[in-house]
Amino acid sequence: MSRLRWNERVVESGSARFSEPVLDADQIAGIVPLDYRKPYDVREVIARVVDGSDFLDFKPGYGPGTVCIQASIFGIDCGILANNGPIDPNGATKATQFLQLCDQARVPVVFLQNTTGYMVGKEYEQGGMIKHGSKMIQAVTNIDVPRLTLNIGASYGAGNYGMCGRGMNPDMLMTWPNAASGVMGGDQAAKTMSEAMRAGAAAK
Q: CB–CB of 160/113 below 8 Å?
């Protein structure tokens, strides 16, 4: 194999310098609840993973349920796309721009999935949920940088695709023990079926 000399003209890169997270990673077990329906700030998880617990929050006041973070892990720059709830039109728009910026900068993207999916209902559909959600899914599909997915909570419905689930063929996919995935969440399915049955009964 050494006679192939395939690294002969490649400049050797030294090991990247990095600092350990300031916050203890063992605390993650106390931050993330077993029940995905209990809210928590995913930034608390990110601060215990990235170098020096230091990160830059991209447009935190716009579509706040979708969290876009610029940071480094083991000295390697990366973009982190995470959820603090369902994805609304503004969150999908922000995520699309963030993914395109990561692609242009040749920065790998880490997806931290914990979402019940995209927002539904008349108000969100009139706000362009379908359009903006499809743009986000298209961006996830088309970026040409490594995509690493960690399912750390819920991963339901179209949110599974928008957050680079198995169907999007990420370069790596890992699932935490508390994670759950499905076409639709149990609560959402029960509510939908209940509304459909009530509407049918009212019509009769």
A: yes
- CA 50, CA 63: separation in Å to the nearest integer? 23
How confident is the model over 41-56, as pLDDT tens digits?
999 999 999 999 999 9
Superfamily of domain covering 16-203: 2-enoyl-CoA Hydratase; Chain A, domain 1 (3.90.226.10)
Note the pLDDT of residue 8.
76
* Residue 68 near residue 61 (C-beta atoms within 8 A): no
Compute the half-sphere exposure of residue 93: CA atoms within 13 Å on the CB side of its CA.
13
CB-based burial of residue 57 (10 Å sphere; 0-12 exposed, 13-18 middle, 19+ buried)? middle
Given a cut of 70, whether residue 84 has pLDDT beyond it is yes
Are 70 and 56 a contacting pair, CB within 8 Å? yes
Of 35-49, 87-101, 180-194, the one with minimum mean pLDDT is 180-194
pTM: 0.82
Q: Could you tell me the sign of the dihedral formed by the alpha carbons of 57, 60, 64, 66, in that order?
A: negative
Neighbour tally for 174: CB within 10 Å: 11
Do the Cβ atoms of 45 and 71 come closer than 8 Å? no
